[in-house]
Amino acid sequence: MSTHAGWYLLGFTTDWTAPTTPVRLGDERLMVVRSESADGPSFRVADSTCPHRGANLAVGGEVRGNNVVCPFHGRLIRLGDHPERLSVRTYDTAVFGPMLFVRLADGPEGDTGLPEQFRRLTDGKRVLAAVDMLIDVPAEYVVENAFDTEHFPTVHGVPSLAGMRTERRPDGTLTIGGDFLTKDDPWHDLRLASALNNYLGAHRRPATYRSAFRAVAYSPTVVATSFGQGVDDPIIVTGALPTPGGTHVRVAVIGLPEHPLERIAEASELAIHQDRQVWAHLDPGAAWQLDDQDTNVIAFRDYVADFPLYEPVRVRAVAR
Predict the structure, then answer these.
(1) CA 32-131-265 angle, 5° bins
(2) With a threshold of 0.70, does the pTM exceed it?
């Protein structure tokens, strides 16, 4: 199961309450190491396979400072590459509210500036975890949804779309922008999650409310989507984490204190369930016959194909 070199939404910080927790990302065996301080918890992500004899350091390992005691032979394993000691590799991480992101590659490869952009996106905002579910679908289909404009009317009942265009940016992100034409302001008309369908299409009134739609893919498996009036709109962050048991889909919403984030979270969960009904019966191996209406999907799939892959580097230092 191949992995890319960019950013993943590894999960929500509430998932990791123990000092060490095992995590699978594709074929990679990782661990989240939680540390406590007066400023609150902090999190590091590292390889979990002991370089001595292959034990899982996250299962029974004891954290001692910047080391983990291996549960198999009691060796002290350093967190972070070390030239003279048994050590495991650590990875770049970024935490925003409950979201923990990780990037597997070193250097600039696969780095699309997510930490800097998310610091700006979350400054002065609330961040609320909305969806956390395991789905049997290839991870790329989840983020592709933001670029598959043709599915919005069919699956989600959006009455009309206008001007949807995709652009690959110099920073390595892929964006799509345009307009949703809906019945009402999407976020402030929701009373219950089930009202999503009413606002999108069940009314008899014409779709005249123009909501600016924008999505930014920071990697093939992380996308931030917004639609509204274009100024401080709520943002929906979707991450798709490939695991041996399926794709772990997590969604969080970002907004100002006055935004109804709980309602947006309910609507986001409803939308994922609507997509899941289609994903459950997909044939990912089927041959595709694409046409001009699939321009944005083709742009996303080209982005996935061109995105740098992650080449694992195993640390096999010898204790001295």
Answers:
(1) 130
(2) yes
